[in-house]
Amino acid sequence: MRDLLVETIEAEGHDPEIDERGNVLATRGVPAPDEPHLVLNTHIDTVPPHVGYELEGDIVRGRGACDAKGPLAALLDAFCSATVSTGRLTLAITPDEETAQLGGAYLGDTLDADGYIVGEPTGLDVCIGALGSFGGEITIRGVSAHASNPADGINAVRAVGPLLDALDRYDEQCGPGGHELLGEPTLAPTRIEGGGPLNQVPAECTVSFDRRTVPPETIEGFLDGLESHLAQWLPADYSFEVGAAYPDSPHPDAFTTDPDACLVKTLAEASGGELRAFGAATEASYFAPNGPTVVFGPGVLADDEGPVAHSEREYVTRSEVAAAAGAVRKTIEQLLWWCPHSDLCVPPTCVPTLRAMLLWTSFGLNMLPVLISGMVENQLMPTEHNKILQYAPQ
Ligand SMILES: [Zn+2]
Asked: Whole-structure pTM over 0.90, yes or no?
């Protein structure tokens, strides 16, 4: 898939690179510290199992159709076809969003920009927030003994009862409370492992859990809070430790973006979509600390019949892919047009833009070609990248 992506970008006359984490990066425009930088991001990986490509009229079915090849086709089309009059546009595509997310976390650390559009299936709505996500585990330690004399040991499995009660009470007693956009945080125990031979009192038991966070709680803050909460609730005979189930992976914190940010308003106007939260964890969380970040794309996570993304019936419509491409293209052209200010801002609300217009008037004819190229309807790539949608991983 990555080869096809790189070949497609090259065929459009750009010069893609692959960074040390396997991200594909391509840039348009010239880096300049005072000019705006907009990033388009999504991912090339999909969840298993493979579901074959099928085209039925406007509907494309198959694994990844909406998560996230449809969004990728839209962003790629917008990247290649938009007129970039000033500033810089970067396409940054990650390889492991569905698993370790090392690519997204690395981009968050290395790709500084004034705005980020993250392609995921939102049905053309502009999503300005998402829950954070953390998989953790609590290891309880007791003392082993012969099971015929259970009183000689400290049975780690017996601590699971009070531990589950403590998890149930966590949010009521220590949680951040509900968030107006993202709702309530959740904490769900999802796996229990422990014990060995049936004639031995078990010394160790591990309860794993899934935490979905809402601001202002960070995953780090949650872990500290959970540790002191459990210390109060677990019987004193036991020792325990709380840690990450996947310590080598980054953990996306919850994020929200100001609904009044120019990027949000511009994209919402261009797409006609609503502002809302995204219903799944996303790599957008790694970009949001750097600047306004939105999740946007064709397709849906679920429809009236049930789950769509990650399900056997995954699909996207070509018309929605094209509409998403058009909305992103329009957004790029508005944001990377004439504002010389590093915030992404839209005329005529932006004071620096008005200042720039006055400045340009004094430059007169020199600036005319730039203005014209920004205004001309772009005809480079009227269709979406269908090959991307058809690609079947081996
Ligand atoms: Zn996705």
From this structure: no
